[in-house]
TrEMBL record:
Quaternary structure note: Homotetramer.
Activity regulation details: Allosterically activated by ADP and other diphosphonucleosides, and allosterically inhibited by phosphoenolpyruvate.
Catalytic reactions of this protein: beta-D-fructose 6-phosphate + ATP = beta-D-fructose 1,6-bisphosphate + ADP + H(+)
Binding site for Mg(2+): D103
Gene for this chain: pfkA
Amino-acid positions noted as binding ATP in the UniProt annotation, renumbered to this chain: G11, R72, Y73, G102, D103, G104, S105
Principal subcellular localization: cytoplasm
Location in the cell: Cytoplasm
Function: Catalyzes the phosphorylation of D-fructose 6-phosphate to fructose 1,6-bisphosphate by ATP, the first committing step of glycolysis.
Cofactor(s) required for function per UniProt: Mg(2+)
Domain of life: Bacteria
UniProt name for this protein: ATP-dependent 6-phosphofructokinase
């Protein structure tokens, strides 16, 4: 192993740059040459690959987004696209690849593995929906961004005695809504992984109003339904002076938290160590606060991420 490459793919997540920095500097420390692939798998197939040195990854650990850029590239799901990517890697003399991203990125790394090219996956997505790890890079930052918004919205909700439905990102996972909802004292949290009854939601709002509560905050994961649709259905049970706030892509941006920077640094260094050991076809993760490596094919085909539903139960017991 003399040369390795790094790419970021799919939706950006705070901490991706910290992971790229860790991979590059750990590899250089170990005497390897490092190359960065611009625009994910699209850039890989196009040969948009450049040499990285120590200075190239300086002053990026605190930056959100990804300085290698990202792009959606459905064509990499085809064998033709995959073989073109491997051809470019061989053209540059690259012996191993580190892929930082979410579910789609992992499937790209898995495809390379099946073709015999060593690839290591690092979980970088705000959604926290990747099996094989308790936490993904970007999740902590995104949750704190949502929490800050919840705190601000509570102020105006109280001033006008309103109910707010706050729709948050997370694709088909409810982790961001769940963690930010508990931390923000939400009256109700609606996630894809747990059924809800709109009549019960309305009853909780009414009971709060009857006790003199001046605000009501409902955190809605986007994987359930849209915020406006949810508010329209809630209105069938009464006039709760409801407003909708859709946080959207603001949740994906911003400087990563200390936890995400450390997590990214640990994952990046581990990925290089695995490649140096001659190992590919693995994904890095965090389980019980320990950095672990799992077979990427087995992880994707048999693993399933589950949110901590004890938090859902806890919120029902302490938020009223």
């Amino acid at each position: 192993m003399k040369r390795i490459a790094i790419l970021t793919s799919g939706g950006d997540a705070p901490g991706m740059n910290a992971a790229v920095r860790a991979v590059a500097r750990k590899a250089i420390f170990e005497g390897l040459e490092v190359y960065g692939v611009n625009y994910g798998f699209a850039g890989l197939v196009a040969g948009d690959i450049r040499r990285l040195d120590v200075a190239d990854v300086g002053d990026i650990i605190q930056r959100g987004g990804t300085f290698l850029y990202s792009a959606r590239y459905p064509e990499f799901a085809t064998e033709e696209g995959q073989l073109k990517g491997i051809e470019q890697l061989k053209k540059f003399g690259i012996d191993g690849l580190v892929v930082i991203g979410g579910d789609g990125s992992y499937h790209g790394a898995m495809a390379l593995t099946r073709h015999g090219f060593p690839a290591i996956g690092i979980p970088g997505t705000i959604d926290n929906d990747i099996p094989g790890t308790d936490y993904t890079i970007g999740f902590d930052t995104a949750t704190n961004t949502v929490l800050e918004s919840i705190d601000r919205i509570r102020d105006t909700a109280t001033s006008h005695v309103r109910t707010f439905v706050i729709e948050v990102m997370g694709r088909n996972a409810g982790d961001i809504a769940l963690w930010a909802g508990v931390a923000g004292g939400a009256d109700d949290i609606i996630i894809p992984e747990h059924d809800f009854d709109m009549a019960e939601v309305a009853q909780r709002v009414k009971e709060g109003r009857d006790r003199g509560k001046k605000h009501c905050l409902i955190i809605l994961a986007e994987g359930v339904k849209g915020g406006n649709e949810f508010a329209e259905e809630l209105a069938e049970y009464g006039d709760f002076h409801t407003r909708v706030s859709i946080l959207g892509h603001v949740v994906r941006g911003g400087s990563p938290t200390a936890r995400d920077r450390v997590l990214a640094s640990k994952f990046g260094a581990k990925a290089v160590e695995l490649l140096l050991e001659g190992k590919g076809g693995l994904c890095v993760g965090m389980r019980n606060e320990e950095v672990v490596a799992s077979d990427i094919i087995d992880t994707l085909e048999n693993g399933k991420h589950q949110p901590d539903l004890s938090l859902y139960k806890l919120n029902k017991e302490i938020s009223f």
